[in-house]
C-alpha cells in the first residue's frame, strides 16, 4: 500500500476481474452479476423496448427510429458520426455503420464496450471507453454529426454545462448536426423500471437551460419546417418519464 495510485490500481483490478460482481441474494434469478446487467441493457436497446413514445409534442415523434430517420435527412450519406455515450451493445453505432455511415462510439463504462465487442466484433476499432466528463479525445470540427441520447441524465449538471455540451459542439464540423435527448424537468427522478426490475434514479434538465448552453457555444436550433421533426420536442416514454429532444 504505497499510496493513492496503488489503491486506484487495485480498484481497477477488482472491477476488471469482476471480483465483486457476482450477486448472491437477488430478486430475479437471472440477475447473476454485472455482466448479466450489461447484457440486459443491450437487449433492451436492440429490441427497442423503451423506444416507443407515448405523449409527444410532434405527431411524427413516434420513437427512436423516427429520430434516427430525421437525422439521416439532415446529413449526407456516409457522413462521419460520433455516438457519445453509445451504451451496452452500441445499437445506433452498429445500425448506422451497417447503413454506410463512418461511425465511432464512446462510453464511460468498460463493460458496455465489452458487450459491444461481444455482440458486434466488427466494431472493435470503432468503439472505446471514454468518460464524457473529460474532454473528448478528438480534434475540433471532426464529425458531421454527433448523437448523445439518454446520456446526460446520468451526469451531474456541473459536468454537463462545463464540459459535455462544449465538447459535443467543439467536435462538430461547421454546419454539423447534434442530436441531444435527455430527461427533462427539475432535480432528480427515481422510478421503477420494469425492464430491469429495479428502481433507477436520473438527473433531470430544464430544456431552456440546455438550449441556452448550446447557443452559448454557437449552436443553432434546427426548426420544425414543413412538418419535419425539429425545434424543441418533448415526449413521455413507457415508464411515464418526460424527455426532451
Low-pLDDT ranges: 14-18
| Series of secondary-structure elements, N-terminal to C-terminal | HHHEHEHEEHEEEHEE
Q: Assign the structural class, choosing from mainly alpha, mainly beta, alpha/beta, alpha+beta, or little secondary structure.
A: alpha/beta
Strand order of the largest sheet: 3-2-1-4-5-9-8
Count up the helices: 7
How far apart, in Å, are the first and last alpha carbons?
Answer: 48 Å
| Inertia-based shape | globular
> Residue share in helices?
25-40%
- Our Rg estimate from Cα atoms comes to 18 Å
> How many β strands by DSSP?
9
| Integer average pLDDT | 87
Q: What order do the helices and strands come in, and which of them pair?
A:
Blueprint: H1 4-16, H2 34-46, H3 64-74, E1 80-84, H4 91-98, E2 102-107, H5 110-119, E3 127-129, E4 143-149, H6 157-170, E5 172-183, E6 188-193, E7 198-203, H7 207-216, E8 234-236, E9 242-244
Parallel strand pairs: 1-2, 1-4, 2-3, 4-5
Antiparallel strand pairs: 5-9, 6-7, 8-9
Helix pairs in contact: 2-5
Walk me through the structure.
With 245 residues, the protein is an alpha/beta fold. The protein is 32% helix and 21% strand. The chain has 7 helices and 9 strands. The protein has helices spanning 4-16, 34-46, 64-74, 91-98, 110-119, 157-170, 207-216, and strands at 80-84, 102-107, 127-129, 143-149, 172-183, 188-193, 198-203, 234-236, 242-244. The strands form 2 sheets. Strands 3-2-1-4-5-9-8 form a 7-stranded mixed beta sheet. The chain has a two-stranded antiparallel ribbon with strand order 6-7. Helix 2 (34-46) packs across helix 5. The longest helix has 14 residues, at 157-170. The protein is globular. The model is unreliable at 14-18 (pLDDT under 50).
Amino acid at each position: 500500500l504505497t499510496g493513492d495510485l496503488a489503491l486506484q490500481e487495485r480498484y481497477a483490478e477488482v472491477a476488471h476481474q469482476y471480483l465483486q460482481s457476482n450477486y448472491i441474494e437477488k430478486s430475479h434469478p437471472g440477475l447473476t452479476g454485472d455482466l448479466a446487467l450489461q447484457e440486459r441493457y443491450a437487449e433492451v436497446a436492440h429490441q427497442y423496448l423503451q423506444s416507443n413514445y407515448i405523449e409527444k409534442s410532434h405527431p411524427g415523434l413516434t420513437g427512436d427510429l423516427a429520430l434516427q430517420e430525421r437525422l439521416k435527412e439532415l446529413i449526407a450519406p456516409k457522413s462521419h458520426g460520433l455516438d457519445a455515450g453509445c451504451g451496452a451493445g452500441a445499437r445506433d453505432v452498429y445500425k448506422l455503420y451497417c447503413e454506410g455511415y463512418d461511425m465511432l462510439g464512446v462510453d464511460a463504462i468498460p463493460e458496455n464496450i465489452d458487450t459491444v465487442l461481444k455482440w458486434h466484433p466488427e466494431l472493435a476499432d470503432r468503439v472505446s471507453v471514454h468518460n464524457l466528463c473529460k474532454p473528448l479525445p478528438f480534434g475540433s470540427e471532426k464529425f458531421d454529426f454527433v448523437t448523445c441520447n439518454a446520456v446526460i441524465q446520468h451526469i451531474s449538471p456541473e459536468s454537463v454545462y462545463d464540459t459535455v455540451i462544449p465538447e459535443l459542439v467543439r467536435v462538430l464540423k461547421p454546419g454539423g448536426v447534434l442530436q441531444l435527448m435527455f430527461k427533462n424537468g427539475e432535480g432528480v427522478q427515481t422510478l421503477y423500471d420494469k425492464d430491469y426490475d429495479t428502481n433507477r434514479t436520473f438527473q433531470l434538465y430544464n430544456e431552456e437551460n440546455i438550449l441556452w448552453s448550446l447557443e452559448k457555444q454557437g449552436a443553432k436550433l434546427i426548426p420544425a419546417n414543413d412538418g419535419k421533426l425539429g425545434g424543441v420536442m418533448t415526449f413521455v416514454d413507457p415508464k411515464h418519464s418526460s424527455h426532451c429532444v
